Amino acid sequence: MLLGAAWGGTAIENSMLGAAHSAANPLTARFGIVHGHAVGLMLPHVVRFNATDPATARRYAELAFAAHLANPAEPVEVAAARLADCLESLLPRTNLQSSLKDCGVQEKDIPQLASESATQWTAQFNPRPVTVDEFRTIFGAAFNASLNTR
After folding, report:
1. I need a surface site. Which of 4, 78, 102, 124 has the fewest CB within 10 A?
2. 27: left (phi over 0), alpha (psi -120 to 50) or beta
3. How far is 123 from 110, CA to CA, in rounded Å?
4. Does the pTM exceed 0.70?
5. Rg of the chain over all Cα atoms, to the nearest angstrom
6. CB 80 within 8 Å of CB 61
7. pLDDT of residue 8
8. pLDDT at position 150
9. How far, CA to CA in Å, does 40 sit from each of 5, 11, 71, 75, 100?
10. In Å, what is the CA distance from 21 to each residue of 28, 67, 83, 126, 149?
11. Which long-range contacts does 119-122 make (Cβ < 8 Å, 24+ apart)?
12. Are 51 and 33 spatial neighbours (Cβ–Cβ below 8 Å)?
């Protein structure tokens, strides 16, 4: 456990986090969603958003190839999508809610959540810039997620 915690801390220090963490902070503060769960709720949607940037899609594809989620002969966009799908499939395995709606977030909360997320310092370290409007779209995807049907 100590080694895992050390690696986790090292990863955080080196990555400076990003949009998934920025979005998770107000979910934890406003709705009491455990922070790790909040990150897990947002991460697949942030990966899909980030993967529209070609350089980031290539990095995600490398992760998908290394995890044997995709074949290196496939387009990077396909590999990045498989990575996001894999991340999305993890929450149901833990018996945690897999959408913001299931966590008690209401659609009317999304603009405020997006606004607060955009002001988080960790948002500036996302692989591609993310605006309030883009956070609204990301939260909308997480709100409507229906992971149990995949």
Report:
1. 4
2. alpha
3. 17
4. yes
5. 15
6. yes
7. 82
8. 40
9. 17, 16, 25, 25, 11
10. 10, 23, 18, 10, 26
11. 120/21, 120/22, 120/25, 120/26, 122/16, 122/17, 122/18, 122/19, 122/21, 122/22, 122/25
12. no
Give the pLDDT confidence score for residue 4 in this predicted structure. Answer: 87
pLDDT at 148: 40
Which residue type is seen at 8? G
Find the helix or strand (DSSP H, E) in which 24 lies. helix 19-31
Quote the tokens at residue 119: 């002001």
Max CA distance (Å), the chain: 44
Nearest to 23 by CA among 14, 11, 33: 33
pLDDT number for residue 117: 98
Contact 47, 83 (CB under 8 A): yes
Which pLDDT value is given to residue 11? 82
